[in-house]
Amino acid sequence: MTERAFAPRPPAFRLAQTALILGLAAALTMAGCVRRPPEPLRPPAYPYSQTPAPLVGALIDRPIDGGTQGAVKRAGADLGQCMAQLTAARVRFSPVPDRQNTAACGLSQGGVLGADMGTVARMAPGEVEMTCQTALALSVWRRQSLEPAAREILGSDVVQIDHMGAYACRNVNNGVGSNRISAHAQAAALDFAGVRLRDGRRISVARDWNGDGAEARFLRRIRDDACRVFGTTLSPDYNAVHHDHLHLEATDTRFCR
Questions:
Q1: How wide is the angle at C-alpha 246 spanned by C-alphas 81 and 60, nearest 5°?
Q2: Pairing of strands 202-204, 189-197
Q3: Residue-wise over 181-204: b if at least 16 C-beta within 10 A, else e?
Q4: What positions does the domain Extensin-like C-terminal occupy (predicted)?
Q5: For the whole model, what pTM was predicted?
Q6: Residues 153, 226, 98, CA angle at the centre, nearest 5°?
Q7: I want to staple 105 with a disulfide (CB 3.0 to 4.6 A). Which of 26, 99, 185, 225 is the partner?
Q8: CB atoms within 10 A of CB 167
């Protein structure tokens, strides 16, 4: 074999050979004969993050039992948790800044209780300022006791809840015979006066507490239920000062009469 047979190929030949190889590879790839390497995994556009399940009005829509008062106390101790319970149950509550009106009177972790969108009954007067824990306890009581008891015992829906207010800078019993500050001084209690029904009847503590009629049975039922929700519940059975209302106090106390 001659020396010429092993001479290097000219540059033009090598370029043509390279182009032929590349063209053949491209043709095979397009035909599916050559598998492309897998593309690297890309992160999703929205990173996955686990969120807690909604409350769905957990506490407010739960029947009253032996643990209700403790649950209200625990949830009401934290403004964020308390508001989450109210919001989940479609109860409007607008927080307000803490304030100290006097050495003994003021409002902490409170706000304005608005409409309960899960019921038809409305508070009168409306837009009541109180602690969030009071609003939570009141919402549980009205949904799980007041309104069901009216349908069961009185045969009609409650359309209005009459009350005498929550905040009042004063001592207990309106200062009669006591120097102890009232829970009203911190907007931690509501004085319930009665209800108005869809059929036009009006039930009041002042007029209907005594006796054996349906009205009296209704009022005593909701008083007994309130004792399992609120820290302190006072009725006409307690003293003459409460002859016309139920004192519903959402504090850490435990007294029912």
A1: 25
A2: antiparallel
A3: bbbbbbbbbbbbbbbbbeeeeebb
A4: 81-257
A5: 0.77
A6: 135
A7: 185
A8: 22
- Cα radius of gyration (the chain): 36
> In this structure, are residues 114 and 94 in contact, taking their beta carbons and an 8 Å threshold?
yes
d(CA 226, CA 69): 9
The tens-digit pLDDT sequence of the chain (257 residues) is 444 444 455 555 455 555 555 554 455 445 444 455 555 444 444 333 333 444 555 899 999 999 999 999 999 999 999 999 999 999 999 999 999 999 999 999 999 999 999 999 999 999 999 999 999 999 999 999 999 999 999 999 999 999 999 999 999 866 555 678 999 999 999 999 999 999 999 999 999 999 999 999 999 999 999 999 999 999 999 999 999 999 999 998 889 99
Structure tokens at 29: 């790839």
- SS3 state of residue 197: strand
Q: How many residues does the chain have?
A: 257
Nearest to 142 by CA among 129, 159, 130: 159
3-state secondary structure of 160: strand
Q: What are the CB-based long-range contacts (under 8 Å, 24+) for 101-106? A: 101/169, 102/169, 104/169, 104/181, 104/185, 105/169, 105/181, 105/185, 105/186, 106/185, 106/186
Residue type, 27: A
Q: Which two tokens stand for residue 82?
A: 């308390």
